[in-house]
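FORM 12-B: Structure-to-Sequence Request
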């Protein structure tokens, strides 16, 4: 658990850096406070920088997980733990600095790769809590399990199905905006398109697919339970 302590410190500090950058961006592009519709100037002026920043953040979290673990599976779960802590404390710091979000159901711009992810704050927080719980359970069980659990193909299918369902809830709105506007045909020049700018200026998310999100979470939980079940059986036999 010593590794988890230091990973927590790293992730909390990274979350503050992330929140600080967002504070600066909101001061420049949303001086009255962040809300939808999005400011199209953000996309046209610094979108490539934001993409690079998000990639850099993922690389740092992946490196932390890699250094903490000794096997491929350990590294994956340490990464999940770091990501979950980072994401939750990102919102904690924004609440401390800006008193935002107003509630867990406030909509946020979550990510920008490959295009905008949107959703209520509660959704990514639930995902992050799930990641942290999965990581702690796996790391705790592995320390008392004779062999590392094996990933079976059907577990991977369940896991990917859950992940795709959850991603769909985040990407659905902006995907439909791009599709209905015919912007996929002009992706190379979409940022300079007046029609795209107008569409972004009128985009206000309203309905989140909570049923799909819950289904995705259930798929993830079932796949994880099946994955760690052999370790649980070993512990029961030893007792």
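FORM 12-B RESPONSE
SEQUENCE OUT:
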């Amino acid at each position: 658990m010593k590794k988890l302590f230091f990973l927590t410190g790293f992730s909390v500090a990274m979350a503050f850096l992330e929140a600080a950058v967002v504070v600066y961006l909101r001061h420049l592009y949303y001086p009255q406070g962040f809300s939808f519709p999005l400011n199209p100037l953000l996309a046209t002026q610094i979108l490539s920088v934001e993409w690079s920043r998000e990639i850099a953040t993922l690389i740092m979290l992946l490196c932390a997980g890699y250094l903490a673990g000794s096997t491929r599976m350990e590294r994956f779960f340490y990464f999940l733990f770091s990501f979950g802590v980072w994401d939750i404390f990102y919102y904690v710091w924004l609440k401390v600095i800006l008193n935002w979000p107003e509630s867990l159901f406030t909509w946020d711009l979550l990510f920008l790769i490959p295009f905008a992810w949107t959703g209520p704050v509660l959704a990514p927080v639930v995902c992050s809590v799930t990641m942290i719980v999965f990581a702690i359970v796996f790391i705790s069980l592995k320390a008392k399990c004779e062999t590392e659990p094996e990933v079976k193909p059907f577990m991977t299918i369940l896991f990917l199905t859950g992940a795709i369902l959850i991603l769909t809830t985040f990407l659905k709105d902006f995907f439909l905006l791009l599709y209905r506007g015919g912007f996929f045909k002009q992706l190379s020049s979409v940022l300079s398109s007046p029609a795209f700018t107008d569409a972004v200026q009128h985009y206000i998310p309203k309905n989140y697919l909570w049923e799909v999100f819950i289904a995705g979470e259930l798929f993830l939980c079932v796949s994880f339970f099946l994955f760690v079940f052999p370790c649980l059986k070993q512990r029961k036999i030893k007792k």
